[in-house]
Design a protein that fits this description.
It is built from 5 helices and 4 strands. By secondary structure, the protein is of the alpha+beta class. A 4-stranded antiparallel beta sheet has the order 2-3-1-4. The longest helix has 15 residues. The protein starts with a strand and ends in a 21-residue tail after the last helix.
Length: 150
């Protein structure tokens, strides 16, 4: 089994605005790092090599990030211990503070890739039920052996 994740963010301005310029300028840089990162398997992307144009929610300011990883440690390391962290530290410049939960993690069979609708369902499930083996967070993790529960 592998790990899938969805992370959403609500922009404070349109992507083509001066406010979002540095975020957009860093997309190719971060996407290049992630694709070469240990444990990375797949990421959602459109024709522009990122997922900023893909709409999953009825909100043009809400963008989605989805990826699949070999294991939880690789995902956690990329998010919090790679060059990604420097961009993550600047998120308040570009995005609103998100409530409720804006990230969900779940197990997925090797070789499978979630659809944006699959990911939306996991995020909504997590919001409604809290962390379970079906959808969880870095703070409340579950093991593959927990999958018999929901």
């Amino acid at each position: 089994m592998q790990i899938a994740q969805i992370n959403i963010a609500r922009m404070i301005a349109p992507l083509d605005s001066p406010v979002m310029e540095d975020f957009v300028a860093n997309l190719d840089y971060i996407n290049g790092i992630v694709e070469d990162y240990k444990g990375f398997v797949w990421r959602l992307k459109g024709d522009d090599n990122n997922a900023t144009a893909i709409r999953v929610f009825e909100d043009d300011f809400l963008i989605i990030n989805m990826s699949v990883w070999e294991d939880m440690d690789s995902l956690f390391e990329f998010v919090y211990q790679s060059a990604h962290l420097e961009v993550l530290k600047r998120k308040k410049e570009w995005f609103e503070h998100m409530r409720p939960v804006h990230m969900a993690i779940w197990y997925i069979e090797n070789g499978e890739y979630p659809t944006p609708q699959d990911a939306r369902e996991r995020l909504e499930y997590l919001r409604e039920h809290g962390p379970t083996p079906h959808a969880f967070t870095f703070k409340k993790r579950f093991q593959i052996s927990d999958l018999g529960e929901k």
